[in-house]
Amino acid sequence: MRVHLVVPNLASQDAVSNDLLQMYSALQDAGYAAEIIAAGADQVPGPRVRPFAPHEALAWQPGEDVVIYHHATGFPRGEEMLRHTRASIVIRYHNITPPPFFAGWSRDHERACQEGIEASRRLARLPGAIFWGASRFNCSDLIAHGAAESSCRVLPPFHCTEAMAGEVLGRGTLTAYKDGAANILFVGGYKPNKGHAHAIRVFAVYNRLMNPQSRLIFAGAGSSHFESYTDSLRRLAAHLGVADRVVFHTSVSASQLRTLYFLADVFLCLSEHEGFCVPLVECMYFRVPVVAWGTTAVAETLGGSALVWNDFDAIGMAESIHACVQDQEVSRELRRRGYERYAAAYAPGILRRRLLQLMAEAESRRAA
């Protein structure tokens, strides 16, 4: 049996691409004849990528092949392929950010997300398809779009956390931030759903009322589409009197990111929409205490390993940060719980076993 992993674009330092590449490796190691098919590939090292050609779907033999289609955006050519293929179909769903988050910031992203949601509605109704959501939250999204609950399964995303652990700590980053100040970290692209403004407001309370020797560090990919958004965050920090205590990294290497986790006293996640949130897994592995707003899939991903707030409360969240920084027992307990959560739910061996269970289930359904 051949397994075809399909994605619109394969890119380095991209969560969807990392998931697909690690999935490919796990399937190959388990003896499956796996291949990657992508419409675009941005010089990603590793396996050969076959260029996307929808007409090839007609050559796939019924009852033999499986297509694992990674869905995180609209991709009309991919949908065309799925409509014509005779192979079994698995929809690997990474979630689509609701378009209103981008209103007033990026018309292109607003339109792309709307197209992605419309695609989700069509994909959820594909006859005979199986759905692998990255979280229960993602599965509920698909079910709301029309997918049968009995066809939905949860498979947390594969990730590169342990590979990052092998990176050498960056001397420059250590010099810049290892100075005795408390380092509050958030990792995520500069997009309006990520809650940067909420983090600045909470940090301003913490820095002003509880610990002036502290800084907030943002690390994530910048984009020309969201320069105005990033500028608004800088203005907010200035308005709240913490401009000199908020650091914006718009591009970080694996070594720099590894170093930021090493230096972080607390990870502050106030994102408003996450289909999973891989940086939370990285925190668990690197034993960084987490304070979070339990929106969308965030609380599910953390699984009781963090200080999670159901409602936004700037003072309460600042007090949680303060507890992590000042109380060694609180910090030690959160680090322990986080790593135990990682080992039980997100370690590579756990994810590989889950993938193979789902592949066996897909094969049994096909045989039936």
Kindly describe this structure.
There is one protein chain. The protein is α/β, with parallel strands linked by helices and 368 residues long. The protein has 2 domains: 178 residues, Glycogen Phosphorylase B (Rossmann fold); 184 residues, 3-Layer(aba) Sandwich (Rossmann fold). 45% of the residues lie in helices and 18% in strands. It contains 14 helices and 13 strands. The strands form 2 sheets. Strands 3-2-1-4-5-6-7 form a 7-stranded parallel sheet, with helices on both faces. Helix 2 links the parallel strand 4 and strand 5. The longest helix has 20 residues. The protein is globular. 45% of the residues are buried.
List the helices and strands and how they pair.
Blueprint: E1 2-10, H1 15-29, E2 33-41, E3 49-51, E4 66-71, H2 76-84, E5 88-93, H3 107-123, E6 130-133, H4 136-145, E7 152-154, H5 161-164, H6 171-177, E8 182-187, H7 196-209, E9 214-219, H8 227-239, E10 246-249, H9 254-263, E11 266-269, H10 278-286, E12 290-293, H11 298-302, E13 307-309, H12 314-326, H13 328-345, H14 348-367
Parallel strand pairs: 1-2, 1-4, 2-3, 4-5, 5-6, 6-7, 8-9, 8-11, 9-10, 11-12, 12-13
Helix pairs in contact: 7-12, 10-13, 12-13
Can you give me a brief rundown of this structure?
About 45% of the residues lie in helices and about 20% in strands. The protein is built from 14 helices and 13 strands.
Quick one: biggest sheet? 7 strands, parallel
Q: Enumerate how many helices there are, as a single number.
A: 14
Mean pLDDT, as a whole number? 94
Assign the structural class, choosing from mainly alpha, mainly beta, alpha/beta, alpha+beta, or little secondary structure.
alpha/beta
State the CATH architecture of the largest domain. Answer: 3-Layer(aba) Sandwich
H and E order: EHEEEHEHEHEHHEHEHEHEHEHEHHH
Shape: globular
Q: What integer value in Å does the Rg equal? A: 21 Å
Query: What is the fourth-level CATH superfamily of the largest domain?
Result: Glycogen Phosphorylase B
Walk across the major sheet and give the strand order.
Answer: 3-2-1-4-5-6-7
Strand content: 15-25%
- Looking at CATH, which topology of the largest domain would you report? Rossmann fold
Helical content class: 40-55%
